[in-house]
Design a protein that fits this description.
The chain is mainly α and about 110 residues long. Helix content is about 80%, strand content about 0%.
Length: about 110
């Protein structure tokens, strides 16, 4: 049985192979870790935007409900501007539907990594 340490060329070759394997594996692990962190950041960002957009949609629906309540209770009178109330209601409803469509398409699409 020969001693590995007896021949300096053999030990240099073995060390070089070990260093190559180590570098390859460590770089691969760093790439996987960076990918995992990117996915975590992506989903955290999606969560924040989801809450913001839900709040925005709630505000738009609350505005429309408040407007309808004030007009229905007789506190506000739009008889001089008959076109204004239907326009506001249709515009606000279109914005809510458009925003909901955008949210579903943009925030909840499948990610192919």
């Amino acid at each position: 049985m020969s001693d590995v340490g007896s021949d300096p060329n053999v030990s240099d070759i073995i060390e070089a192979e070990f260093v190559d394997k180590f570098i390859h594996k460590s770089v691969g692990a760093e790439i996987q870790y960076a990918h995992l962190r990117g996915l975590q950041d992506h989903y955290r960002h999606k969560s924040k935007w989801s809450w913001f957009l839900m709040g925005l949609m709630f505000g738009m629906v609350a505005f429309q409900s408040f407007l309808l309540y004030k007009v229905g209770a007789g506190a506000w009178d739009f008889t001089q501007y008959e076109w204004l109330l239907p326009l506001l209601l249709v515009q606000n409803l279109a914005q809510v539907v458009g925003l909901a469509t955008f949210v579903v398409k943009a925030l909840f699409k499948e990610i192919n990594w």
